[in-house]
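Human: Note token order:
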Amino acid sequence: MYDLFWRGLAAGLFALGVVALLAFGVEPPSGKSILLAQTSGAQPHELPQRWNGTVGRVETRQFGFEFEHRLDADAPLHLYVPYFEQRLSLGLNGIDLTAQANLTPWRGPLSSASALVLLPSEVLHDGKNRIDLTVSTGPLKFGALSRLYLGPETELAPYFRLRNFIEHDLKVIVFGVQAFLALACIILVAAHRREERFAWLGVSMVASCLFSLGTFGDTFPQVLPIVPWAFMLAPPAAIGFLGFAASLEGIRRTRALTIAAIMMPTMGYILILSGMAPLAEIVLWVILPITAASLSVALVILVRLFWCQPSADLAFLVSGLLLMIGAVVHDQFLRLGYLGNGVFLAQPARLLTLVGIAIFLMLHLARITRELDQAARTLSERLRQREDELAVVFERERTLAEKAASQSERTRIMAELHDGVAGHLSTIVALSDAEQTDHRGIQTVARHALGELRMVIDALVMPEGDLRIALASLRERSIDPLRRLGIETEWSMVHLPDVKWMSPEQTLSVLRILQEAISNAVRHGMPQTLHIKGEAMSSGKFAIHVVNAGGKGFHKTSEVRRYGVQNMARRAEALGGETVIRARGDGAEFTLILPTHGPESV
């Protein structure tokens, strides 16, 4: 149903355009026109007349008219000449009135001039009067003279103003619309470089603007010398519109059109400069046919597209192009002398076509905007659905993370208990199993176990700070028990660099690693001397060594598999470091290596 509506809309717009164009050629219905005879004495001829002079030469034709007039008429008498080519001079009863005549200038082979002349009462005779007209041609060959109308100004002036509007004011309007569309296309191409359709339409509009420079010849006489050359740009304008139609259809191979748009005016200029053909012949037999042919092919493409995909924007575009092609064909027949109304319709048809193009662009952009809005709504809906799915996934991941965190916390607490409290409890058990139980020793170890619990609690609430402070706290807790066991201890952290990136949990991990290393050295190495020292390394790391000497040797293959040793390695790896255990003759050396500025600096 909509397809039929859009097709009917296109037909209706075309019909309205035809009616509007035909209205431009209406002549006064009540004037009187009498052709008496030419001054040469030849037989009378009916007006209008068209003829071809000699290219490059100024030639004249003279016409004489006689009419009856009564001086007691109420309104002043005027002579209206709807069109003539190219220049006109006139006289009444032997008096030259050319200087007093209101003449519109002739602006080229695709235009005509008109005149409205007041016939002064002091020159008119009561009775028979004579008007002498001289029509001059050259350097172009075209000559024409329309019917002549006598009557009051109130009857003839509206038709003269309409002609003047068509030949001057309408061209200014057309130029303005073309310039606006050209600017709009340039902006669209700059914003969307891949939009080939707007690039072709911009070429068509820019060429049309240059082609229409003669519009301002009255205001700026400097442009008049280039007006004949501007006619060569009519084919590029039509070819640009053909490229626009091809891009709408989806035809991408338009290199031939680009070459044609460049070659056509170039060949025309070469023909004119070489003297092989005059401008008038080129306009008549090259410019107009190529323009009409290009627009016709564009029309075929657009009609086919409109028939397959009817829409409002294409309805305006197709109807406007139909009017334009019809106007070009009309002007061709008018120039060849087959039509006699003297009104060139290309300019008014161009305005209707440009209006159709402007409406097409607005509707086309509106449709694109609607499609983008719909796409945005669809994307928003899909995004909402995806967000809902991600929310479910996030909640599931959060639950798993909480479970993993709980498991990690249980593992950490187990390690803390093993490294601290469990070691002291094992000592208490060993002392209790001895034959001579020293209750004071058990009491001491129990105090140390309590101290270890306090250290865990203190480390967890300790603010981020210098590792030296935490190591000093470990030294205070370790020196006294080691001395009671008869172990000489050397503790030195003078060469340890500043380490301030560790959190309380990370600091506690370092303390636990060292505490486990000291505990292992005491339990398994039975040392006489224990050396604990820190130093900076050249690779951006630091090391803390725990060396036991004067005791039992170290069997690496059996000792490194213990849970405590593996737990120390895991703690160090979590901090971005490593542990190294080396055997010595009378003991062993444990080394903790960590980055000085955090794991990310490694």
Observations:
- Residues 272 and 279 are 6 Å apart (CA to CA).
- The chain has 14 helices and 15 strands.
